[in-house]
Amino acid sequence: MATRAPAAGRLLGGVRKWYYNMCGFNKIGLMRDDTIYEDADVKEAIRRLPEAVYNDRMFRIKRALDLSMKQQILPKDQWTKYEEVNLHEQILMFCLFLKKKDVEHCFSLCRFKCHA
């Protein structure tokens, strides 16, 4: 029975990767976190991102808007890869959604120093 868990994990990972590629936002250089609706909590999480991460995010969004207006996609070698996805924005937003009192603990999960 122990051998079934790794196989199931690989299968689930394959399904995740397939779904990520089928969504299409990676073809215009976006990450999944770039596509979520920005309510007050998400805006607060984005405000707390380090400047370099924020600038990268804004570049991806502006490039995607430009490509969308031109009805083009990026060359395949420039698509966002599933393996490149960072969880830093997900962690911040998750913590803010839960309204954690210990926000610094959530920030310690990130690999960068967050702005308070």
From TrEMBL:
It holds the Pfam family UCR_14kD. The keyword Oxidoreductase does not apply. SUPFAM superfamilies: 14 kDa protein of cytochrome bc1 complex (Ubiquinol-cytochrome c reductase). GO terms for cellular component: mitochondrial inner membrane; respiratory chain complex III. InterPro entries: QCR7, QCR7_sf. Gene3D superfamilies: Cytochrome b-c1 complex subunit 7. GO terms for biological process: mitochondrial electron transport, ubiquinol to cytochrome c. Keywords: Electron transport, Membrane, Mitochondrion, Mitochondrion inner membrane, Respiratory chain, Transport. It is found in: Mitochondrion inner membrane. It is a peripheral membrane protein. The keyword Nucleotidyltransferase does not apply. Its main location: mitochondrion. Component of the ubiquinol-cytochrome c oxidoreductase (cytochrome b-c1 complex, complex III, CIII), a multisubunit enzyme composed of 11 subunits. The complex is composed of 3 respiratory subunits cytochrome b, cytochrome c1 and Rieske protein UQCRFS1, 2 core protein subunits UQCRC1/QCR1 and UQCRC2/QCR2, and 6 low-molecular weight protein subunits UQCRH/QCR6, UQCRB/QCR7, UQCRQ/QCR8, UQCR10/QCR9, UQCR11/QCR10 and subunit 9, the cleavage product of Rieske protein UQCRFS1. Component of the ubiquinol-cytochrome c oxidoreductase (cytochrome b-c1 complex, complex III, CIII), a multisubunit enzyme composed of 3 respiratory subunits cytochrome b, cytochrome c1 and Rieske protein, 2 core protein subunits, and additional low-molecular weight protein subunits. The complex exists as an obligatory dimer and forms supercomplexes (SCs) in the inner mitochondrial membrane with cytochrome c oxidase (complex IV, CIV). Belongs to the UQCRB/QCR7 family. PANTHER family: CYTOCHROME B-C1 COMPLEX SUBUNIT 7, UBIQUINOL-CYTOCHROME C REDUCTASE COMPLEX 14 KD PROTEIN. This is Cytochrome b-c1 complex subunit 7.
